[in-house]
Each structure stands twice: as C-alpha cells, then as structure tokens.
Design brief:
The protein has 14 helices and 19 strands. By secondary structure, the chain is of the alpha+beta class. The protein folds into 3 domains: 18-179 and 279-318, no CATH class; 182-274; 323-464, no CATH class. Strands 3-4-9-6-8-7 form a 6-stranded mixed beta barrel. The longest helix is centred in the last third of the chain and has 39 residues, at 320-358.
Length: 467
C-alpha cells in the first residue's frame, strides 16, 4: 500500500509539474481567441499586471504569445507553434529539462535571434545547438514570412503535446510580425531654394485606417506638408487608427547647416517611441503556490481582476485528457488498498481462529476460574493487534525502503514516450503513511471482532478436556 500510494502520488505530482511548468496554472487570454495556436493581442498594461503576484496564493505572472510557424531545413519541414516569452519569463522549469545548450537570452541585443527547440524536433530535423535555421511565421493563409534563428538549446519534458510542437523565442519577434501595434515614421525631403522642407508621415501596423496628428502645427493628414524651419526645429507626428490601437509617436529634429547648390543644407535627427507593438502580448501565464488552490484561484482571478474582454483558462481546461487520466489513478489506488485490506483481514481471521483453537484448554481454564467471555476476547484481540503491529512495522520498513531506493537511484525505468517520465517517480509523505498504518490497524481489529466471538461458544468443561 505504501509503494502504491508513493508511486501514484509521485507520478501525479511529476506530470502536473510538467504541464503547469510549460504554461502556468492559469492562462489569461482574450475571450475572442478561437485557435489555441494563435493568440490575439491584449494590452500588457492591465490593472493586474505585474502586481497580481502580490495576491496570496499567486507566485508569478508573465507575458507570452503564440503563433503557428514552419521550420525548414535542407531535408525536411515541420509545423510548430512558436511561443514568444518576455524578460519576465520564469525559466526554472525548462532549465531543469534542458538536455543541451542554454535557454534563450531574452532582451539581450547580442543574442537577438535565440530559439529553444525540443530534443524531439532536433532529432527529427537533424538540428543541433548553435545551428541557424529558417522559421516561417504564419499570419492567415497568405502572409508567411521567413526569419532566421539560432538554436541556443534543446529541451525534453516527455510531454508529447509540448515536445512535438512548442518552440520558444523572444516575444518581440511575434509582436513585430503580427503588427499588433503602430509604427510611425517621418519622411523628410531636401529643402528647396526657399528653405521649405517636405515632410510626410508614414505608418505601419494596426488596421491601416490611420489618423495623423501634428502637435504644435495646423496641418492635418499624412502629407506631404511643407515646413519652413527657423533654426533648429522639431516636428512631431502621432499616428492612431480606427481599432483603438495604442498610438505611436515619431519626431524629426531639423537643423540648417548652410547653403548648398540646391538650396539650404539640412541635418535630420530622427527619434520616437519605437512602435507600440511592445505594449501588446498574447496573454498572461499565472503560476500558483499550490496546485490544490487551482479552482479557487481561477474563480478569484476571473471574478475580481479580469475585464469583460478577458478570460482565465486553467491547466485542467487545457489538458483535460491528462487530468482525467491522473484522476483515474486515484480509483486504482483505492481498489488496490481495498484488496490489500481484504487480504489482511482474511489472513488475520485465519490466524486468530488458529490461535483460538490452539488455546482452547486455556480458554476453558479461564472460564472455569470466572473470566468473562468479553475479557477473554480482549486477550485474543490484543494478541492479534500485536501480530498486526509487527506486520505493519515490517511493511513500513520494506515499503519505505523500496521507495527510497527508487527515489535515489531510479532503478525502475519507464519509456518516456508513454508515461511522460523516464523513471518511476515516488513521493513519500508521512501523513498518508500514518493514515495507512492507523487505518489498517483499526479496520483489521474491528473485522476480527466477529471471529473472536468463537470464544463465547466454547464450553469450559469440554474445553478443559480438549486435546
């Protein structure tokens, strides 16, 4: 029973850790999302981000985005799901399952094209660490664009749903490709002989229904517009769209440097906010302190912190078949424990009956001396409990010893493709062991009350002469 409970508990914990480690206990996404492989945009600046991890029971919150893609090599192509992560991503889970290389350097300008690939995809496509590969990002049916990435590392979790399709990259690549935000630019022409410079606004991303605002001037629209700067002049444009995308700002600083053959010479310095795509993500992943709080925290987050356009999705909802399988294991454990207790009751009943038959003369003498049947029954029940206690202690030593051996050395191996783990996991907890000991003792002793009633049917005169 100890081995059964230890293995089942360890297996459930290991599998739960894997499915939550790769995507969090909760995912906050747009309610309009229909494809699990592609996340629509959400504004990062939510009231709950990043302060949600201060709520008791919540350990961490991080941004992410997903988009379908295709990996192409000289030999083969493979469809994948690219998962973009930010600088706040918790790499502890993937670092534990890293088999080669290192995790991507998110936000590091010296390694902007890092990509983390699974060992399965690496072996299937003959890709190794430090290889440069082409990944096609897919947007709709017609927009497919290639990107070059360097494989920084290989991971293996044992979960087919992850290893067979999930690829990790910097979220900036997906933000730019999806054009979630707006990008403003200003095109400046050379000044004419009268000192007028042509200025035209350029915009990218969003829904392409743009509105241009030129602060500090009376001009409207995209342009081109003619400006006659006086000395050093800064021209600013703000681009917005009809879809309420976060606006972007661009500016140019114009400085006249003197006359030239074509007119006034001018130096142009450019700047701006760099695009509002960095202010969007595909969703948020929330990690909890305890898996047991999953349902309560899911309800709390949804009701108290999310706006109408957002929803929370628990790991149970994302992997229903895995958790249905894990819950089925609890039924198996109960059946095994029940069978073991029945075997123990049958064995102890047989042993008690044999002891009573062997001590029949003693029972007759005790009754002749005035002992009651109840007192004699207690003697045999105490003796049976003593035998049970020795068996339970020996079972504890054997069961705990086997579990500790498996924990330390992983003697019994498993095919990771079928069981998600490469060795039988074991988790020993003192409370289940204590409950097994006490419960087995009480149930067996109570079950022995019936066979112990044989004592009341033994007559003293016949028992004394019993041979």
């Amino acid at each position: 029973m100890i081995v059964t409970v230890g293995i089942t508990t360890g297996f459930q914990r290991e599998v739960r850790t894997k499915v939550t480690g790769a995507g969090g206990h909760l995912q906050i996404t747009a309610i309009r999302q229909v494809d699990p492989k592609e996340t629509p945009r959400i504004v990062i600046g939510q009231p709950f981000y990043p302060s949600l991890d201060t709520v008791p029971g919540i350990a961490h919150i991080q941004v992410y985005a997903t988009r379908p893609g295709i990996i192409e090599t000289e030999q083969d192509i493979e469809g994948v799901v690219l998962k973009g992560v930010g600088a706040d991503h918790d790499w502890s889970f993937l670092a534990q399952h890293l088999v080669a290389g290192s995790v991507p350097a998110i936000g590091d300008t010296t390694r902007p094209i890092d990509l983390l690939l699974s060992k399965y995809l690496g072996e299937r496509l003959l890709i190794g660490v430090d290889d440069t590969i082409t990944v096609y990002l897919v947007k709709g049916r017609d927009d497919i664009r290639p990107r070059k990435f360097r494989v920084s590392g290989l991971y293996e979790t044992g979960l087919e749903q992850l290893d067979h399709q999930l690829v990790y990259v910097d979220i900036d690549h997906l933000q730019r490709f999806a054009q979630w935000g707006l990008k403003a630019e200003i095109l400046v022409g050379d000044p004419d002989e009268n000192g007028f410079a042509s200025v035209e606004a350029m915009a990218y991303g969003g829904d392409r229904i743009y509105t241009y605002t030129w602060p500090g001037s009376d001009v409207r629209g995209k342009g081109p517009h003619l400006f006659r700067p006086n000395g050093d002049t800064t021209i600013t444009v703000i681009v917005s769209d009809a879809d309420h995308t976060i606006p972007d700002t661009a500016w140019v600083h114009l400085t006249f440097t003197g006359a030239s053959e074509k007119g006034e010479a001018m130096a142009v310095l450019r700047g701006g906010s760099g695009g509002s795509h960095t202010k969007y993500c595909g969703g948020f992943e929330v990690e909890l302190d305890h898996f047991e709080d999953l349902m309560a925290m899911d309800d709390l987050v949804y009701r108290r912190y999310l706006d109408i356009g957002l929803r929370s999705l628990s790991v149970r909802d994302r992997f229903p078949e895995i958790f249905a399988w894990l819950e089925l294991l609890d039924t198996n454990v109960m059946v095994i424990i029940l069978l073991m207790i029945i075997v123990a009751i049958i064995n102890m009943t047989s042993a008690l009956l044999i002891i009573i038959l062997e001590r029949t003369p003693m029972i007759g003498v005790l009754k002749a001396l005035g002992s009651s049947s109840g007192a004699i029954r207690r003697i045999f029940l105490i003796d049976a409990a003593y035998i049970l206690g020795i068996g339970i202690i020996l079972g504890d030593l054997l069961g705990i010893g086997l579990c500790l051996l498996q924990q330390q050395f992983g003697i019994v191996r498993l095919p990771v493709q079928s069981y998600y783990v490469d060795a039988v996991p074991v988790q020993l907890e003192w409370m289940p062991i204590l409950l097994l000991n006490v419960g087995t003792m009480l149930i067996c002793v109570l079950a022995l009350l019936i066979p112990s009633m044989l004592v009341t049917r033994i007559a003293p005169a016949k028992a004394i002469r019993f041979d």
